[in-house]
Amino acid sequence: MSLWLDYILTESLVIEQWQIDQYHERGFLVVDNVLSELEVAALQADFDAWVEDSRHYAEPWGETLDGRARFDIESDHRSDHPSLRRVASPTEISAAFKHTALASKVAHIAGQLVGHRGARLHHSKINSKLPHTATQVKWHQDFLFTPHSNDDLVTSLLMISDVTPDNGPLHVIPRSHKGPLFSHWHGERFMGSVSAQVEQEHCQAPVASYGKAGSVCFMHTRLLHASSPNETEFPRTLFISVYAAEDALPYGDNPLPSIHSGTLVWGTDSGEIRSTANQLKLPQKPKGASFFVQQAGKDLIGA
Ligand SMILES: O=C(O)CCC(=O)C(=O)O
After folding, report:
1. Would you say which domain of life the source belongs to (predicted)?
2. What is the CATH number of the domain that holds 191?
3. What is the tens place of the pLDDT at every residue in 112-130?
4. Nearest atom of ligand 1 to the alpha carbon of 140
5. Whole-angstrom Cα distance, residue 164 to residue 100?
6. Is residue 202 part of a domain?
7. In sequence order, what are the beta bridge partners of 119?
8. CA of 255 to the centre of ligand 1 (A)
9. Is 137 a member of any domain?
10. Which domain holds residue 94?
11. Residue 6 within any structural domain of the chain
12. Is residue 188 in a domain?
């Protein structure tokens, strides 16, 4: 490598080696102040407009590439109590979200954590818990939704609002990425969550991940995680982008296909495929607007 190229690569590193080591050791890493107040404000403004829109709908609405709804609402949604829980692929309808997922420090840090030669965006979404809303996420591992030929995938969860220990933060099981992949099938149905027995045996010592708006939790794709409803008056809004090593070949359907899926966001494209040993049953894609319907046992597939 030339000295000049070496210099450019070193200068472009945005986290340090101890942070990369911590991510690999614990399976997650929280980095504060990844985005500036101005950058977060642009994301918040677009999101606020979608929440205002949601007051006019009683069902999921909008359309994404595969014909499913872009905006998904919780069962407690009303015009005077908005409960917009998901915006799928916001990069397609907002310049601010597109820039964040494809060209910001979030993408560059994800690239460093994925390692190897480069990283691609796989999909993105907003998960929102507005004040006093019921949305919860059951224990799961992301890789069971997005299997690839190798598991060098990282999920970045950018805090658009302040996330506190009380407003429904993400909970993770440190080091669980070093353990097995647990089936998310319950009998003949893909439910998008681990069994009650796995939860009992492996999910009893969770750690909350929280921080100021602009912070990001980077999470390994095998890490067990979940979150509870928001019973506070403060919103909890996350912009979630999933990145895969550029040499990881996706298996099965992308659950949130987008015109930006597969975009190289860091490093180079080697043209190679790398495989690691994993065994799992392919997921079912939800027929409804998002995986929340699968976890609630309300999806039509297999019903
Ligand atoms: O929104 C959350 O709290 C967790 C998000 C999550 O686990 C997911 O979308 O896979």
Report:
1. Bacteria
2. 2.60.120.620
3. 999 879 999 999 999 999 9
4. 7
5. 22
6. yes
7. 245, 266
8. 14
9. yes
10. 20-301
11. no
12. yes
CA distances from 106 to 28, 112, 120 (A): 14, 10, 12
Q: What is the C-alpha to C-alpha distance for residues 235 and 289, in angstroms, rounded to an integer?
A: 21
For the entire predicted model, the pTM comes to 0.94
Q: Would the CB of 88 count as within 6 Å of ligand 1? A: no
Q: What is the pLDDT of residues 14-72, one digit of tens each?
A: 899 999 999 999 999 999 999 999 999 999 999 999 999 999 999 999 999 999 999 99
- Cα 295 to ligand 1 centroid, rounded to whole Å: 12
* Strand ranges of the sheet holding 225-227, from the earlier edge strand across to the other edge: 137-140, 225-227, 170-172, 207-209
The total of structural domains in the chain comes to: 1
Amino acid at 213: A
